Amino acid sequence: MKQDIQLEAYASEFVLKQPFQSASSEVKRKTELVIAGRDPATGDLIYAMEMPLSPSSGESVQNVLNALKNVSAPPSPSVLRFISYLNGLCHKGSWASLSNLKSRSERNAIDLATFDTKSILHVPPDFNGIAKLKGSPNNIPTLIRAINKYSCSFIVDFNGSLTCNQYENFAQSVDIDNIIGVEQPTQQFAEGVNFDLPLIADSFLTTHGYSKIVAAGYKGFVFKPFLNGFDALKICIENPDGLWGIVGTNISGPIDISLVRWINDFMPIKLTKSNASFYKDHPLNDVNEPLHIMTDEGLIMSPLVDAYLKEYAALRATRVFEGCVNDT
């Protein structure tokens, strides 16, 4: 569907509920960037998407602003993802191809709890969900002890931090029956990687796509809407090769988290505990109703999002862009 949309982009900084350690420093505050699309004739909000930015990866408000302003330059990935969701979710024709999957939201959900280095050896004895362990080269002995000690289902997320030899040694030392999967143990996509344990793709889903991770031998994926567009969402929901798959989120605010909660209903594995906003004192933090609402006509945004943009963002955030573009 071809139509002009009025784009607005707002930037606002929020204090995090819980600081975290990045590769270079402790992060206590984070910038919220919201891109909103409106009907230029009526001013009605069509869609809004929150972009979690990672300065350590070179992402900034200015990058997105430059992409929005310079129509002759290739759009930034953030803008492309926004347009893909706008087209895919907000137009009845695109959503209709997935409407037969709505019943998935009625499935039983599974608990997933994350344990860091300090809590790995303190998994509750009666925990019967999925325990996700954060791994690194420095805590491999502790990981092995935990996996071989407890009789529950583990996912180990190394975030690409191991060498192939380090991962080989880890894979040979753990009880394979206790592991659902290992999330991206090394930076290598396939060559030289031990596939004895089921591997789960995270950023590789973005860089290589669903078909290639299947061909390489991956058994699962983590779908992150801020890294993948609507086409990737569609194939991950359809999941033709029967992979184990869940939705993931980033350190972000309530608009992004609401989208994650909605996608969670349609992933191959539905999780019980949905994440909450990571920002302190965000005006939408305590909203109990969904901010994304699916109708027969497509996805619509809650009026509360429009009110947030018109009231809070208009007064306290910085409007970094306003202009009209075509959404095709």
**Strand-residue proportion:** 25-35%
- Secondary-structure class: alpha/beta
Strand order of the largest sheet: 4-5-6-7-8-9-10
Q: Ends: how far apart? A: 7 Å
Tally the helices. Answer: 10
CATH topology (level 3) name of the largest domain: TIM Barrel
Helix content: 25-40%
Defining key terms:
Enolase-like, domain 1; TIM Barrel; seven-stranded parallel β-sheet; 2 domains; globular; alpha/beta; 10 helices; four-stranded antiparallel β-sheet; 328 residues
Please tell me about this protein's structure:
This protein is an alpha/beta fold. The chain folds into 2 domains: about 5-100 and about 300-325, Enolase-like, domain 1; about 105-280, TIM Barrel (Alpha-Beta Barrel), CATH 3.20.20. It is built from 10 helices and 13 strands. The protein has helices at about 60-70, 75-90, 90-95, 140-150, 165-170, 205-210, 210-215, 230-240, 255-265, 305-315, and strands spanning about 5-20, 25-40, 45-50, 110-115, 130-135, 155, 180-185, 200, 220-225, 245, 290-295, 300, 320-325. The longest helix has 14 residues, at about 75-90. It is globular and about 60 Å long.
